[in-house]
Amino acid sequence: MRFLPTAARLGHSLNTRCIQNFAYSTLAPPIVETLQNPPPSNSLITVNGHIKSLRYSKNVGFIDISDGSSSKTLNVVFLSPDKVLERNRFKVGQSLSVTGRWIESRGKQAYEVQYNLDNPEHQIKIMGDVPEDYPIQKKTHSLQFLRTLPTLRHRTSTLASILRFRSKVESHLTDFFNHNHFVKVTPPLITSSDCEGAGEQFQVESLKKVSSKGDEFFGKPANLTVSTQLHLEVLAQSLNRVWTLTPCFRAEDSNTNRHLSEFWMLEVEVCYIDRLQQLTALTEAMVRHVVKAMRSDKASFFDLTEARFNKDEAARINERWETVLSPEAWPSMTYSEAVEIINKVKCKGRSKGRMEWGDSISTEQEKWLAGEYFKSPVFVTDYPAEQKPFYMPPSSEGVLVSGKPTVSCFDLIMPDIGELVGGSMRQSDHNKLLEEMKRREMNTAEIDWYLSTRLNGSVPHGGFGMGFERLIAYLGAMENIKDVTAFPRASGLCEC
Ligand code: 4AD
């Protein structure tokens, strides 16, 4: 009996799942699908994937196949290894298509594929060969070494599982925003404005000069976006609640394990709010939702943790998820209170370094505050105005330290990684916004399109941006965000 794909076996008719069914009925089932819906024992089945490992004795041979759809591999078992290996020169890394008998296994896994050389229906086809020095072998490779293999590293269990995890997290975030009536929007990535005003933009120019437009393709300087916030603010005024997940680009020359030149930012903008606490509550609910959803999806949790050879890492994932899901609401304090704690409290006999009011809280201090002092994600609010961009309004009364202007903003600080989210209320009053821009000696003409929103039915609003790679690195217990993005870009790093 030949194994039919799921939809055909279940006899699905056209219904709301018809697109999914169509895919299943025409595409070769991936290993994850075969394992989740195993065909009947003894049916004929075809599996495709790369050889992960290969071993044989005198009487029997085993090939472990992985197609990247699951951290689980499929075992192909064959008798008469001398004859099989005479016909096929198997090597780790080759891509194979194997047709054989699906049987219950006597080994660790529930099922295996039995290939019988003498059965004319059975087949092994090497679809793609590899060179003798194929670098990914069955042993632990350091993540640093794997970064030197930009086109192959995703074939390792850990990095493949992180990309699957990333995909799941995105879909849980989509559920969260759909459920809460947010519209997913698509702001531009090429812009003539510098949202954060930090001068970290990459400029966009055409290689071909377009004479009709003068020297510049867009007729003015254009850059890759550092944050889509300004455009999201425009869209929120029309749609009430919006969100997006897009690449952002920053020419920061800091080659750290938490900075990329091209990273993905999840950004949110909400209208008709007047308190910062509404934004921090939304942020907390969003991150908690992702972890709860991942927790209840046992298969995905298993997929992520099973792919780690080091069991301490699997434990760390669990620990971090528990930290996020703590029964108490995450603590929140102002910048001034955080400075006081950092200056007063000693940790293991050592102070976390003296700070003057107005200094930036360093990454090390952030990690200490969240990881050691509170042992929880922490919101720090109301930073000094001079540390933040032009669009943030003054803090609400009651949090002002006399004579020291602060703004209505927050950072979400996580244990181990520091800042994950940055957000604020937005100045919605035209004159106040203009005044602040002039105080900062900004070119107001360049951003008049943004200012104009404050003259056309402006509404109170606010929002935030979350570094997506930082979220994945934290929840997936990865040290370096270069390992949670498929093709990392950083200063001096753009290999392909
Ligand atoms: O705090 P940031 O700079 O905030 C903004 O850009 C706001 N305009 C967002 C908004 O309110 N819509 O960046 C937001 C987050 C940071 O907290 C950090 O997690 C991440 O983006 N981030 C980076 N991630 C990786 N590599 C970099 N170079 C990053 N720079 C910021």
Automatic annotation (TrEMBL):
InterPro entries attached to this UniProt entry: Aa-tRNA-synt_II (IPR004364), aa-tRNA-synth_II (IPR006195), aa-tRNA-synth_II/BPL/LPL (IPR045864), Asn-tRNA-ligase (IPR004522), Asp/Asn-tRNA-synth_IIb (IPR002312), NA-bd_OB-fold (IPR012340), NA-bd_OB_tRNA (IPR004365)
EC number: 6.1.1.22
Highest taxon, organism lineage: Eukaryota
EC main group: ligase
PROSITE patterns the record matches: AA_TRNA_LIGASE_II
GO biological process, one term: asparaginyl-tRNA aminoacylation
Pfam families, alphabetized: tRNA-synt_2, tRNA_anti-codon
SUPFAM superfamilies assigned: Class II aaRS and biotin synthetases
Similarity field: Belongs to the class-II aminoacyl-tRNA synthetase family.
Keywords (A to Z) from UniProt: Aminoacyl-tRNA synthetase, ATP-binding, Ligase, Nucleotide-binding, Protein biosynthesis
Claim: ATP-binding is one of the keywords in the record: yes
GO MF annotation list: asparagine-tRNA ligase activity; ATP binding; nucleic acid binding
GO CC, alphabetical: mitochondrion
Domain Aminoacyl-transfer RNA synthetases class-II family profile span(s) in chain numbering: 163-488
Name the record gives this protein: asparagine--tRNA ligase
